[in-house]
Amino acid sequence: MSDFKLSIIDIINNDILSVKQRIEYIIESNSDFKLNIQLILIDLGSSDGSYEIAQEFKEKYPENIVLLQNNEKYEGMGHYYNLAFEHIRGEWVHFFDNEGELPFNAFLNAKRYMKKYHDEVDIVSFPVKYYRGKFKAFIPKIEYSNEDIIDLTKDYNHSTIHLGASFIKYDAIENRFSEELVDCEKTLFLTEILLKKDKYALVNNVFLETLPQYKYDQDFYTKDYVNNKFELFFNHLIVKTNGNISNYLQYIFANELTQIIRIADLNSIYDTKDEIEGFWNQLYAILDKLEFEYLEVHEEMPRIVRSFLVYLKNDDFHVELQPEKSKVFVKSDDYLINSLHFHKIRIDIVEIIGDTLNLSGSLSSNCDYRNLSVKIIKEFPNSKKEEFIAKYVEYPTTNRAKQTFLGITWEFPYNFDFKIPLKKDEKSTLNLRLVYHENGNELEMDNHIMFREFAGLSIYGNYLIKNDRIFYFRGRTFYVEPYSYKTMIKLEFKSLFRILKAHGPFLGKAIFYRLLHLVLYPFWRNRKIWLFIDRDTFADDNAEHLFKYCIKQDDGIEKYFILNKDSPDFERLSKDYKIVPFGSFKHRIKYLFSEKIMISQVTRGILNPFTHENSYNYEGLNTYKFCFLQHGVTKDDISWWIKKFHKNLYLFVTVSDLERDSMVNGHYNYEEFRIPVLGFPRYDNLSNDPKNEILFMPTWRRDLDTPEEIINSDFLKNINSFLNNEKLNKAANEMGYTLVFRPHPELWKFLDYFNLEHVKLSEGPYQEMFKTASVMITDYSSVAFDFAYLKKPVIYYQDGNYHYGEGYYDYETMGFGKVIFDEDELVDKVIEYMKNDCVMEEEYKRRVDSFFKFTDRNNCKRVYEWLLEH
What we know:
Elements: E1 4-12, H1 19-28, H2 33-36, E2 37-43, H3 50-60, E3 65-69, H4 77-84, E4 90-95, H5 106-116, E5 123-125, E6 128-132, E7 137-139, E8 149-151, E9 166-169, H6 185-197, E10 199-202, E11 208-210, H7 223-240, H8 247-261, H9 273-287, H10 292-296, H11 303-314, E12 318-322, E13 327-332, E14 335-339, E15 345-353, E16 356-365, E17 372-379, E18 385-389, E19 391-393, E20 403-405, E21 408-421, E22 428-438, E23 441-445, E24 449-451, E25 463-466, E26 469-474, E27 477-482, H12 485-502, H13 507-524, E28 529-533, H14 542-550, E29 558-563, H15 568-574, E30 579-581, H16 585-592, E31 596-599, H17 604-607, E32 625-628, H18 644-647, E33 651-652, H19 657-664, E34 693-696, H20 707-711, H21 714-723, H22 726-735, E35 738-741, E36 760-761, H23 766-772, E37 773-778, H24 783-789, E38 794-797, H25 811-814, E39 817-820, H26 823-835, H27 842-851, H28 859-869
Parallel strand pairs: 1-2, 1-4, 2-3, 5-10, 6-11, 15-24, 28-29, 28-31, 29-30, 31-32, 32-33, 34-35, 34-37, 35-36, 37-38, 38-39
Antiparallel strand pairs: 4-9, 5-9, 6-7, 8-10, 12-13, 13-14, 15-16, 16-21, 17-18, 17-22, 19-21, 20-21, 22-23, 22-27, 25-26, 26-27
C-alpha cells in the first residue's frame, strides 16, 4: 500500500535563484501536500546554496520531503532518476520539469484524471508547447485530441509524450531508466509503459511550456551514442515486441531517427569503413520496419528530415519537369519532396544606391545550387527587354549553410545578389524568375515573392522613393518609374488600406506617421539629415566623437545625436549640443527622412525607433544608408552575425588592413568599397594622463544570459577571485594603485553578483577611463586596441571560453601584451608593471605600430570625407 498519492522527483543543480520558487510552487499548488504528496529532491552537488535552501524545506516537512545529494561526476539524468526509485512511496510518480512552466491548476487537474481513469491507463499526461530562448516563440507541435483517453492504436501521432508532463502509475514501472542512453532514455522509459495498454489519459485544459528536448550539436554525436541508441533503444524495442512494430511505435522510431540522421559526417565518429558500413546496415534494418504512412504524416518531424528518411528508404531522388506548366517536382519514387515552383523567394534587400538597384534574396530546396539560377527580366514600354543573372552567394557560417545529413547534402540554400543599372527617367517592369537547369535545358518559374523584415519593402510598405525614382512591388512584379507626388499618393493610400485591413498591432501609430511622412515629403525630400547614435542608453563611442567633428562642418547637412533621456550621458552632452531623445516624436520623423545613420552598434532596436512597433508598417519609407562605425576592432570571425543579408551595412569602418582583409576575404559578402580603412573617430580624442589605476575590463559571454547561468559560472567565480586577491590588493595599497572594474554593458544587469568590496567601480566615459588608467587587464575585449593605441601596457587574462569564432587575430603573436591563464601569474605580472611605472615593452609597441594603419588624429576627418563622397 502506498503512503502517498503522488511522488514528485525534482533535480537540483545550482538553482539558487529558482529552487525556492519551484518547491513553493509544488507545495502551494497541492492543497493536500502534507497528506498525499511526497517530494524527492536530488541535489547534484550544488555549490551555490541551493542544497541549503532545500534542507530548510526538508526540516519544515520531514515526513514529505526526501533530500538526496550526489557529488559524483555527472552521470546523466537517467542515473539520478534511478536513485529516486529506492525512496518512492507514492501510488503515482511525476518527474518535475525544472526548465518548464506548469499553471497553478496542473496538479489538481492531473489528480482528477488519475482518479477518474485509474484502472484504464498507466499514464496521465499534459500537452506540451515548446519554445526557444527567453521569449516564448512557440514551436507548433500537433493538434491535440479532445478525447480524454488517447488510444494509440488509432491516434498514433499522439505517441511522443513528454516525461515532465506525465504522471505515471508506480506499479506499471517495471524497468528503470537506461543509464547508457543520453537523449532518449526518457522516451524509452515512457514507451515501455505505453506498450502495456496502448493508451494514456490526456489532460486537455493544461499545457506544459518548456524548451525543446533536443539540441543539435555535432559534438554531441559519438560512436557510443549511436551504437547505444541502435542497440538499447531501437533493437531493444524490436525484441520486446517480437518484431511487431505497431503504428505508434513506428511513429516513435521515426521521431528518434531524427537525431541520428542529423550527424553531418559519419567519418567524424567512425574510424573504419567497416564501422560505417555497420552503421548503414543498422539504419536500414530500422527503416525496413517503418511504413511510408508513418513517415509521410509525421507532424512533429521537420519536413526536411521526413523527406530524407523517405529518400533513404526508397534509394531514389529524381526531378520531374512539366515545361508546359512551368512546374518542377522533386521526388523520391512517388513521394513528393518539393514542388520547386511553389517555393517562396524571400527578399532580403531592396535598395537604390546612385543609379543601381540592389536586390538580394534567397530560397532553399533539395536541388543542388548548380542546377538553379535566378534572373530578372526587365521590360520597357517599347517592349525592349534586358536580362540580368544574379550572383550566387554562400553564407556558410550562418543558418543558411548547407544542411548535410550523414554525409549527404540534403538542403541547398540559394542566396542571390542583383545589381541592376537604372537609366535616368526610366520606366520599366522587372520580373524575377527562378530557373532550373538540366542537361542543357532550362525551365523558368514564376515564384511567389515575400519580403523579410527590414528588407526595404514589405507587403504594407510596398514602395520606396530614391534619387527621383519610385520603385514598387505589385503582384509578382517590380516597377520603376520617375518620381511623381501623384503616384506616391496613390501608392501610399493603398499601403494604408492594407495596414487597416490587416488590423495589426500599433496600427494607429503607423497610419499617423505614414500620413505625416506623406504630407511632409514634398517639402523635406531634398533635406540632408544625418543621425548619430552609439547606444540608446550610452554615448562616448565612435558616433559621439564623429558627431562632434561633423557638427563643426559647414556643409548644409542637418546633424542630430540620438540618446535616451535617462542616459547618464544625456545631461553631459545636452550642455553643449541639441540632443534628440531616443524614441521621441522628433527622432521618429528625422529617422524616416534620414539620408545616413552613423552608429557604433548593429542592433536593430538601437537603430530603428519602430523596431518593436511592427516595423513592417514602415518599410519603404526609411531609405537611409546604414553606416557602422564599429564599437570595437573586429578581430574574430563574426560573419555569422554581421552578414550582408541581415544587416546590409553601407559602411563598415576598420582601423587596419588586416581587419579589412579578413572581412573582404571572409563570408560577410559586402562589396569591397563598403569596408574602408579609415580609423576609429574616438581615437582622435584619446589622451594619456595615468593616475595609478589598474583597469580591469572583461568582456561578456553570450551563453551567460540569465542570472542562473551567470551565478553558477566559472566566469563570475574567476572575476570575483581576482578582484579580491589578497596579494594584489596589498601590493596595490602599498604602491598607491587603485583597482578599477568596468563591466561590459551586457554585464551591468548582473552587477549585484560581483564582489566589489576592494575595487572602484567605473561608470564614467570610456575616454576618461583610458586616460587615467596605467595598465589594462582584459580577456578578449576589443577595448585593448584603444588602450594599446596609447602604448600603455595590456594584459590578456583568458579562460579559453569565448563566444566568437576564431578569426585572423592571434593573441600570442599579434597581441599587445602577455596572455595569461593563471590568477597567480596575472597578479605577479600586474605587480611587475606597478614596480616599473607601467611601461609597455618595446615588443608590444612595435606590434601597435604594425597593426594600426593610422596613428594620427585625422580619423574623424577621413570618415566624414568618405561619407560626403559616398
